[in-house]
Amino acid sequence: MKTSLKPLCLFFIFLMTFTFVRAQDEREEFLKDVKEAKTAFVQKDPAMSKLFASVEAYAIFPNVGKGAYIIGGAAGNGAVYQSGNLIGLAKLRQVDVGAQIGGQAYSQVLLFENEAAVNRFKQGKYEVAANASAVILEEGAASSINFRDGVAIVTLPKAGAMVEISVGGQKFEYQDFRNP
């Protein structure tokens, strides 16, 4: 009986092509979400436009989900831009412990005031301490944002509600496009 590997090879070529196309579609959809989140920040407070233009870099997490019942967690994926160019991707992870219950979705942006702050983030294991404060964006809030150690955090609530008195911190991982 003569068997041919041709059908099997064609199947694997099709499978690899389909997987690559799907990954490209997911990336394009994600970057569209990032662009929409940036637009939402600027629409909420037009002064954010000046901040995006003046900082050394920024990381936008368009969809962060957070949930808690005593122990809480949050996660989201982001895109990192320096001098207006996409340079990498980032992951946000958060764990909190304390009196808390609920769930919420929000967008978050980290603004990096200088190159030293960007370089700390790009080392790949960046953490924001529990006592770091994030500004919840309201109209006019962007003009009074304060940087701490060269970083400012701005959040834009999307949906849900949380009641919390908790302690925790955020951790970020970074993947550079230029040095995978």
From TrEMBL:
Coiled coil stretches, renumbered: none
Segment forming the signal sequence: 1-23
Residues of the Ysc84 actin-binding domain: 94-172
Keyword Ribonucleoprotein appears in the UniProt entry: no
Keywords (A to Z) from UniProt: Signal
Taxonomy, superkingdom: Bacteria
Pfam families: Ysc84
Name of the protein in its database record: Lipid-binding SYLF domain-containing protein
